[in-house]
Amino acid sequence: MNGRKWGALLRLLLAACFAVAVGLTLVRAAPVAQSATPPSPSEQDSNASCLRCHLRPEIAMTFPNGDALSLTFDEQAYRNSVHGDKLNCLDCHERNRRYPHPLPEVSGRREYSQAQYELCKRCHFKNYTLTLDSVHFEALSKGFAYAPLCTDCHTAHAATPIRESRTQIAQACSKCHEGIYEEYSSSIHGSALREENPDVPVCTTCHGVHNIPSATTASFRLDSLNLCAGCHADKELMDKYGISSNVLKTYLDDFHGKTVGFYQKEGTDIWPDQPVCSDCHGVHDIKAVDDPESRVIKENLLTTCRKCHPDATTNFPSAWLSHYEPSLDKATLVYLVKTYYRFLIPFMVGGLVLYIMVDLWRLARNR
Amino acid sequence: MATIEAHREGMREVPEPEEFLRFTLGQRLEHWVLVFTFVALVTTGLPQKFHDAAPSLWVISALGGIDNVRLFHRIFATLFIFESSFHLGAIGASVVLKRFTPSMIPTPRDFLDAFDWLRYSVGLSSRRPEFGRYDFRQIFEYWGIVFGAVIMIATGLMLWFPTYVTRVLPGEFVAAAKETHSGEALLAFLVIVIWHLYSVVFSPNVFPLDQSMINGKISRERMIEEHLREYMRLMGIKELPAHLSSESVASGAAEKPPDG
Asked: Which member of B118, B179, B198 has the closest CB to residue A334?
């Protein structure tokens, strides 16, 4: 009896110890599991159950509005993407942990993307915040269905480091801005880009990346000078192509540029009627200045001037010195006038100061 | 000068005016209109020339932006053109009415005066040249302003109406007009600030201010000191005593008496 009693007590104690040990292990294990890095993709387990279905080519769904969506997963593209070794399916598609998957509570494919895209901000908070200042977000918030979301430019599953491929940037924009892209492709910048030129601007060089501002505001127009000057006033860069790096200075020294320069300095939001770079050279369709299609080649310049000076005649365009500093070769008359005053003014001032000194000396002597 | 006064007292019984009328009210008004337009044109013009300088931005902001400044500049330019035309018209009218006094027409004598004045000032000569109604400095400054005004008005109009100009002239003339307008403006500004302000404000002879452009008058002392030949003409003195005339007014008597 005693022996059985002790035996029972010992078993109870052992059971209690085991329970406590298990409990402690569980309690300790839970936070460890949370803070651990996501399982590496080599551990097939985490995605395997998803891929069991989603690699099948015929798998697809239809939204209530009739939009069809293929649910086949391109595993290779995903593995090559920036997220391929970082994220598992459920990191983004958390609600599909349950099976059968709950149906998305949206009517169509676009609505689904819009509902899902904020997932990106969990990791990419800074860039997400930048987009809130963009013209794209403004369009989105006004209800424009095709205002671009993260995934429209970066894709959902095949996101690659887009900034490393300049052609890819232009192509990402071209998905919506096709007409502009075509203009750009035919421009001096765009055609050089196709030849993998590393110096020419792509869309984002001028328009920014995530916080893309509206390009039709007065402030964008005023700032556009600096956008162009960013490269075109860079002597080292321009020398590479044999282009003048003096274009901004010569512009700001002349009538048009002085006004625009003052608008910039005053910080006013007046829309400058005076031409900025793009008014004469074009915006997306900028051609080399010796291209027969260039708006600023001599043959076409009068037409360009007439946009603002409708009564201009043949002689008029040469009133603008085409970004040249006057010299003996270029704009000789202007150079001579400039030189004349450069000598006359100090001569006159010196003479008059001398006169005053002599006069004061005379008065001092006669006193 | 005491000798001259003694000479005068010896010649005349009638009391002599203490002051002479130097500028009529019309001339004074013209002058101040010119001062006003000049200052306004310089204020609205130079900040455009020196567009990079910080004070330029200050002036342009204070006047409400570059568009306002350009508008003001053209308004004052119009006023300046009217004033210049009026001046020209007044001279034309006085010629027609045969009342013209050619006191501002430079003569070879003025160039000699300038040379003599230089020699006298630096002490190479003790012979002090005597002047008529206007001395050589005033005559040269006047003509400087006249030519300056012609250049400024002509080039200013070219800049104002470039499309009309280029119907006749090559486009480069507009660019040259801008350079001229800009250079001549700075020149005029500096000459006025240095030379004219010295002559009418800072010179120990007149400091703190030559008031003849305000009240139109000049004292007898200054008249005798600075414009002896004019004084003699007004007083009807034909010749100075020998000891003075040989030194100072050699050709004074030969001057053609003005008509009116």
From this structure: B179
